[in-house]
Structures are given as C-alpha cells and as structure tokens.
Amino acid sequence: MRLKTVIRQLCNFKGFIITGCRICKQEKGIFTFEARKGSRGICSGCGKKFPSYDRLPVRFFEFIPFWGLKCFFEYSMRRVNCSSCGIKVEKVPWGDGKNNITIHFRWFLADWAKLLSWKTVAERYRTCWDTVRRAVEFAVSYGLEHRSPDGVDAIGVDEIQWKKGHKYLTVVYQLNGSARRLLWVGRDRTIKSFNSFFDEMEKAQNGFCHGIRFLCSDMWKAYIKVAAKRLPGVIHILDRFHIMQKFSKAIDKIRAEEARKLRKEGTPPVLKHSRWCFLKRPSNLTDKERFKLKDLLKMNIGVIRAYLLKEQFQLFWEYKSPPWARKFLDTWCDKANRSRLQPMKDISMMLQRHRDLILNWFKAKKQYNSGIVEGLNYKINTMVRKAFGYRSYEVIETALYHQLGDLPEPQFEHQFW
Length: 417
Ligand SMILES: [Zn+2]
Hints:
The chain has 417 residues and is an alpha/beta fold. It has three domains: 3-143, no CATH class; 154-238 and 388-404, Nucleotidyltransferase, domain 5 (2-Layer Sandwich), CATH 3.30.420.40; 240-364. Helices cover 46% and strands 21% of the residues. It has 15 helices and twelve strands. Strands 1, 2, 5, 6 and 7 form a five-stranded mixed sheet that branches. It has a five-stranded mixed sheet with strand order 10-9-8-11-12, with helices on both faces. The longest helix is centred in the middle third of the chain and has 26 residues, at 240-265. The chain is elongated, with a radius of gyration of 29 Å. The structure holds zinc ion. Residues 43, 45-46, 48, 82, 84-85, 88 line the site of zinc ion. Zinc ion binds at residues 43, 45-46, 48, 82, 84-85, 88.
C-alpha cells in the first residue's frame, strides 16, 4: 500500500488529489496536494464555491508524524473570486486561516496533552511546547463554542490559589447528573469574578440561572453575596468538605503551637510526627498512626481536646432532620466556646454565623453527593499545582478547561488517536 493511499483512505479531502509523496533526508515525509481538475475552490469568507482567481505560492501544512517522520502537506492555495466577499483565499479541509498546522495534527496533540504533560507531548511528536499550547487552545475554543450549558441544575463554586501572593481563581463546576465538569474559570475571587460567570452563562443560554436548584460553596463572603442576589430561590449549601477543611486547619494550628510550646519547656517531643494522626479520618490511619493516636488521647493537651471536638462534630452530618441537627450544632458550639482554644472558638463562631446555609445541607442531602465537590476540588488543585510553572493565567485557564471541562470534539472520518 502506498503512503498516499493511506492518507486518501483515512481522510476525506473531497475535491483534492495527492499527486505525489516523497521522503526528504529521512526525516520528513511530504505529500503533494492538487485541486481536482475543474473543481472550484470554497470561499473562506462565506463557504460557497467560486471559480479560481489565481494561485498563491506553495505552502506546507504539518500533519501527524508517523514512524519518526515529520509529515507535511504541500499545496499552493487558490484564491477565489467570490461574488459577495471579493477575492478570498480558499478554504481547505485540513487547515484554517494562516495556521501551518493541520487541524488533524492539532486535535492529535491536544488529545495527547490530556494524558501527558505538554512538554512531553512536544518532545514525543517532534514539535515545540508552544505548538502544543496552541493546539490545546484551539481544542478548548472549539469545545466552549460547541458545548451546551443545558440541564445544569447544581453548581459548585470554589476559590483556588494559583500563585503565591494571594493570586486566586474562581472556578465553577457542574455537580449534577453524569456531567460533572468544569463550567467556568475566572481571575480573582471577587464579587466581579462570580458575577461574570453568571453574565457569560446567561449570554450563552437565556434563563441559565432559573434552571439552577442547588449551589455549593465555601464560606467566602463574595460568593455568598453574589449567590443571594443572582440565585434567590436556590438552595445554597455550605458543604461538608469545605467545613471539615476549616477544622483541619484549626487543628493543625493548635498542634503546631503546642508542639512549639512543649519544645520550649523541654518536655519530650510527644507531638512529633503526629500531624496526620489528627488530620486523617480514624478509619484511614495506618497501624503505627493508630497506636500513636491512642497514646496521645490519654493526654490532656489542647490538640487532643480539639481533635475530640472535631470527631464529635462528624456526627452532625449523620442527622436526618434539620431541627435536631440545629440542636446538635448549638450544643457543639457551646462546648467549643468553653474549650479555651481560640481556633475552635473561631469555628464555632463561623458555624453560628452561617447556620442557615449549613443546615441547607440536610435539605439537599438526598439529591447530590458532596464527594463530588471534594473530588473536583482535589483534581483542580493538583492540576494548578502542576501548572505552577506556567505562570501565565491564560495557560492555566486553557489547561483547566481542557482537562476538566468535558468539552465536545468534532467527529473525523478516521480517529488518529
Ligand atoms: Zn465569499
């Protein structure tokens, strides 16, 4: 089978024929394309066919490499005389505009970039990092244009730190149904950021906000404010994952402080290597950690008291009826207030302040699973950390949509990847 037969059979390039193919210095494969005799070119402005006007110098379009050969299509573009657009360069099925990378190669790179780092993809397919970046950008902009925000009825919003020095992103994801995807990424975590999400979605689909029944968020003020205004009838939930995250932070603070104090007093370092004993759920502890925790629990120190308060609070999530949950919450807060531990008192205050939104968890409990929030938050954080090297906001935005947006892709006659 000849190489050009392979290409001809895999791609539907109607109106064009491959007249030759050659290998250059053992590193490049070049396929020469010509327009079929008598065929008319397609105007790149309006998509209609018109007679040729003239021909431009030969151009090379990079195609998917194979067997260690970089591959190129060689073709001299026609200009057509369009009755409405004037003299226009024709549209070819493998490329668009001034881009010298074929559409096939771009989708090919973008697809690999979901599995491997952009750098590795570039090295593997004999191209540069920036070509991979542009390929991913191309895939993302196609996907965003062709996706439908239909059927979104539960969303979650989160703030993610992407750079040192209080650089944050706002991310919004869809939580309902089978489509758990990233819907939107924006700069900062301000009122303006969250508002732009609603503006953009409403623009894409009229009545987007009316379709939403649940919103999950953490306690960030800007989000709570915007949500109250834009989604008035919606059940707003401060979810379990974000609240328990606050507990972990508080315990970590108490432990670090106490360890420092004990060290100063010259007491044996009982708290050394104890961090994960307090942060993990008891069922996730290793044997070693379990024994260590058992020993520590006999001591009357602040971090132990805080730990026990946290474990007690886990019971809160087991309640079924909101009034009983509320009662439990109040009792717990009383206890925390008497604990003489400032970080725990802070949590108690926070819980009281947001009591209604927290109790909404019970209203929505049966209808969606908060593990999803945790899962997506974890995925985004890992990705952002990996992408720290990129530095530029645009790159992170593209990478997040690409990995987590579940964006649609076009159908090709042959799937090259
Ligand atoms: Zn035209």
